[in-house]
Structures are given as structure tokens and as C-alpha cells.
Amino acid sequence: MTKAMRIHETGAPDVMKWEDVELAEPGPGEIRVRQTAVGVNFIDAYFRDGTYPAPSLPFTPGKEGAGIVETVGEGVSDVRQGDRVAYASAEGSYAEHLIIAADKVVPIPDGIDDRTAAAMMLKGMTAEYLLNRTYKVGKDTTLLFHAAAGGVGLIAGQWARHLGATVIGTAGSAEKCELARANGYDHVINYREENFVERVAALTDGRKCDVVYDSVGKDTFDGSLDCVKRLGMLVSFGQSSGNVPPMAPAILGKKGSIFLTRPSLFNYTATRAELLDCADNLFAVVKSGAVKIDIGQTYPLSQAVQAHRDLQDRKTTGQTVLTID
Question: Which part of the chain is the Enoyl reductase (ER) domain (predicted)?
């Protein structure tokens, strides 16, 4: 037997229960990973509370983590027992052991520890595709990134600065604004004290932004549209405040023929080559020192309920990691 967080009905954080589960064997093309660290992300809460439908009940939440390959299944050749691996597309990472397809994990390079790898896979690869693929950010780019002090935001701020962009962020407290400034942002707007649309217009002399990255959703979407320049792009990649209400496509024309996209990491890393390329770019920028991974808080895996409460109440900064002894 092994231990895992199980959800029998969707709802608030306390629907997660720490339970015994059977220790399964990997099938063909699969491996079993002895987990050492697990990353916490808003998508975990979306599945937990029912915003995203789970494939079945009960289920174990979690997409991201790192550990040691314990057993390999039939036909697995490029992953070996004892390898350190990380992943960002699991089903059920809130567990001491995980069965996962071998082609969904990546080797952790020397110089990066397991907690750092677990903390950055989903959020770091999200930043990678947002800045390098969804919109090609460069030295002539002016961008707005909501939730600048969150997990993706802190990585994206550093990375965008490394790429030479002018980086504007939003955050909800003076402390979070200061944290964002220390992680690459040229300007940070406290949305509780200032109107971010008016402030972006002032900061850009009315030119607005080439691209706006919005993971907040309902509370910021309309304002985000007003921060995009003519022919610019709004990237809606999450909804921490709730789903964006339905909108008529004609509004995009009225706002300046702007582009709207709703990307996901899983579509940008659908092939093995895409996954390895994305992960390699992330590992390289972290190992170079241009991007530092800030683990803001850790909890034992058995205390994932509290981790979700703190995430939901916006009490966390940087990356949140669940540890496994």
C-alpha cells in the first residue's frame, strides 16, 4: 500500500482525504515514480472544486512533480530505474507513488534539485510557451502580466526581462508588488489601489500593450481587453477569479482588431519533441541564473488541504511545493 490524497466529491479544500491506496505496477510504456516533491497549481483546485470536470470519482488531484524512477514497464527504453525525472502532465500527482507514461517525464539535469524541478515544471513551462510561442516576446515588446507575484508571474517577469521586454504587472498588495519588482517587473500596479487600465495607459503614453497575459479571468478580462493595443493580443490562460462570461466576437474588432487566444500547456507540449524542447529551454534559463525559482512555501503532502486553502485565499507567493519524506 501507499498513500494519496483522494477526492470522493468535488468542493472546498477539505474534500481531499489522505488515504491508503494500492501500490500499482506500471503497464507497457509506463513507469512508477517514487515521489519526492509535488507542485501545487490553480488547475489542481479547478479539478478539486469541479470547475474542470474530473474523468471519474474518486480521483487523486495533481499534475506536477518530481521523483525517482522505481519500476519500468514493458517497452520502456529511454527511462531507467534510478533516474531522476520531473513531469507536468500527470493524473494524480498528490501521492507517494505515481504511475505515468514514460514519454511524459523529462530527465532532471544535474544542478537542479527535486523540489525546484517540482516547483517549476508546470509554471515554468507555461511561462516558456507564453513568452516564446504564444506571443514571441522580445526587446521591442511591452507586456502586461496579471498576478505578477504568483507562481507563473514571478517566472515570467524574470524571463521577459531577460528577453529585453518592458514588463508591467499587477498584484494585490504592497508586499506582492515589491516581490514582483524584485523579479523582473519594470512597473507593478496594485489593483486594489489603482485602476490598472488607466495606469497602463499612463505608463505607455496611451500606446497600450503588445500582449496582455491574463490568468485571473472574470475580474480582469474586460479591463485586459482595454490594455491591448490595436492588432495586439490578449492571452487568457486561466480563471482564478471565475470563468469569463460569454462575449460577442465583434468586441475584438471594436477594441482594435485584437487577437484573443486561450492556450494550454498540454497543447503546446503534445508531442515528445515539443515537451523536451520546452523543458530544455526552461532548465537552460534556470541554470543560467537568468530565472530563479522562488519556493515561497512548502507543506507535507498530507497537509495539502491547508496548501489549497492558502492558495485559494491568495496567501501564497511564488511556488508552493508538497514534500514527501
Answer: 11-322
